[in-house]
Amino acid sequence: MGRSTGIYVIIALLLAVLPFVYDDRIILSLVMQVFIFGIFAMSYDLLLGFTGIVSFGHAMFFGIGAYSVAIVLNQNEATLFYLLLGTLLAVAVAGIVSFIAGVLTLRLQSHFYAMLTLALAGLFMVAAEKMRSLTGGNEGFVLMVPDMFIDTSGPTLYLTCLIVLVVFFFLVRRFTQSPVGKVLMAIRENEQRVESIGFSIMYYKVIASMISGIVASIAGVLYVLSLQFVDTSVFATDVTLDALLMTIIGGVGTLVGPIIGAGIIEFAHHWLSDLADVHWIFKRWIILFGIVYILAVIFFPRGIVGTLQEIWIKRKYKKQQGKEATKDKNEAAS
Amino acid sequence: MMKALLELHDVQTYIDQYHILHDISFEVPKGEVTVLLGRNGAGKTTTLRTIMGLNPAAKGSVQYNSEDITKLSPYKIAKKGIGYVPEDQGIFEGLTVGENMRVAMKKENESTHERMEWVLDLFPDLKTFWKKPGGQLSGGQKQMLAIARAYMNENELLLIDEPSKGLAPIVVEKVMESIQQMKERTTIVLVEQNFLMASRIGDQFYILDDGQTVHQGAMEELQENETLRKKYLGIA
Amino acid sequence: MDLFFNLAINGLATGMLIFLLAAGLTIIFGLMDVLNFAHGGLFAWGAYSGVWIYDISGSFLVAILGAIVTGLLLGALTEWLIIKPVYGNHVQQILITLGFMLVLSEMLKVVFGPNQKSAAPPAYLDGSWQLGDVILIKYRIFIILVGALVYGITYFILKRTRIGLIVRAGVMNKEMVQSLGINIRLVFMLVFMVGSAMAALGGVLLAPYSGVIYAEMGMEFAILAFIVVVIGGMGSFTGSLLAAILVGMAQAFMAYYVSELSLAVNMLLMFAVLIFRPQGLFGGKGEAA
User: Fold this and answer.
1) Which of A20, A126, B63, C104 has the highest local Cβ count within 10 Å?
2) Does the keyword Transport apply (chain C) (predicted)?
3) What are phi and psi of A319, to 5 degrees?
4) Contacts of C among chains (3+ CB pairs under 8 A)
5) Bridge-partner residues for B64, per DSSP?
6) Domain ranges across chain C
7) Contact C176 B92 (CB under 8 A)
8) pLDDT, tens digit, for every residue of B188-215?
9) DSSP 3-state of B162
């Protein structure tokens, strides 16, 4: 177990204890949202940060997760069994859709995947609006959830979200350190070179696309559980932009960065909407986020974690150089 | 001696994180053909691209007509009167031969018309295929078009990157002949692997090795110096 | 038969509006390798600013000119502020243009208010002509004519003028264009401005056509325009016209018969193109006109 793993485990344990020692329900459910969007942003990072694929329809997978579970629970009984069935459905649909999107466009320039996913998300949005009997159209519907999750700010749901986040964090991290993950990162750095060594780029990219889509759909499942309500806004471009913002602010290609990014964005949302009473401009916080996002892309492309890592590596390097210099001196003296 | 038309001093160039040119210095006298020799990967192409500003130098200076052009953008450098024939010729494949020439013609006046006529006399093929898309030309014709086009902008200096590459010997002969004729009118920096050709039209040479200029002299000198040729060029 | 005719006119008009959006997108892509995800925002801004000017001045012609000017200015601003700083980095460019799209949409709500706005055609374009059994709605014919005019002028500029020649050359080989002494950045800026103006023109023309405008319409039309660009071939100007008409037709006919499926049908068209002919139906990159 590496030192970083230890730190993560300790933080996770501290967060697990939180609902038992701290009882501000608003803050607790906010933290829970951070877990959910942390999973979502992490899945985005797997694409953007680790494979260099830009998706503009990530909301689609989020929405697929949300609607799958919501519809299955709504059409049947609200039991754990149907929740699991819905989750399975979500995973299957997300897997198939991401597979199709990947196969269609990942052999082409990066614009194509971005464009196709954007259009697909639009298609799902329209579908959710039009299939009223299943989805309730624009207004969406309120759903019953299994008894154990009925208290949306209770510790059960909170802990479930935390556990899913932690499990997926370690799984995805494991994946990025696996041989497949290494190939993905090599693709990000230099696609031609990887291809010339004889790897089928397409195959690896599609795998990344599928895993990312599936993990995103799980986030959608948890989201709908936490709201006990679903409407078409889960497919909105804003949701994709949230993931983008979290990933970029937190640090592309760092996995932990997007989770931190999720924390920052969720809390900022919260406070900014409180400020809406102070001045109307805060109702339009998307503008603010959009501007921050644009500035981050231009001036701060490595994000918080990426920048910290850079500083850390530089310092370490300097230290090492310093050590070697003194060693050289000593050798010269003797 | 006259002041050189082009001078490079201690030029260093990076492409991404790779340090390609370590220390390039040379002078190109007016009216002569200066040949850059060296093995593959020695930095010859990058040197030309650095002069053009396509891969700008990180350190050192490039002087043209006693003016510092190191940091200028490519189009400004081209405007100063430097024409460039890249290794892949850079033909606009979807444009006709005529259109390819016209892109290079900033203005139309007597001087450009005179140039156009002269260069079309030099490469009569271009006149024949005036309306043919550049992509459908043969390798030799593309090379001629690229050279003719580079000459259009009232240019005083042509940078030509391996004009003999991939051409049949008889075509190489033709291209080299025309370069020899261009020499009457402009100064030329030529990158060439074909030593025989280079020695025929070159006045002086520089040898590049691992991003450094390691040797220079008059062309005849190299013809006599077998050890030098073996060491840097791998030819006897 | 007249139903068919009416739907076809409808499809052609819709197609022309999408063309105005897609044309800029495809040329900008061909020349600069930038797929501008904020393009739909410029379309919406054209619509809002046009309708606003229309309300004040009472002249539709002034509104159109105003929208075009808005497009030119916003285009210049976008290129300078958003595209240039991340020049050469594709991923960053893609990321940043989407962010700007959202900013543009939200800014619309700040400047013009969050509610949708209504617009009607001017009196001289209102109503219809009766041609035997066929009813020709004047405003739709007007849109078709404007679209055809824009295509014609742009085609002429691309094929017959020096700047058009430079743009076509730039699509094929940017570096070489610079090496011939041409400031390609200036050409980029110009093309970006013109492309944005076309989008803005499309927006203002749409307003009286659909009757209402709202901030989200930028994104909705942009998605159609992306589909068009893929079908027509990225970087192909004529391809974008033909594909836009195709998509407009599919949209109009499907909307009449099974309106739920109109977007889906266009997506399927795009899928088919991506599978069988990823360079687009009408020639791919390399031929701007």
Assistant:
1) C104
2) yes
3) -55, -45
4) A, B
5) B6, B67
6) 20-215
7) yes
8) 999 988 888 888 889 999 999 899 998 8
9) coil
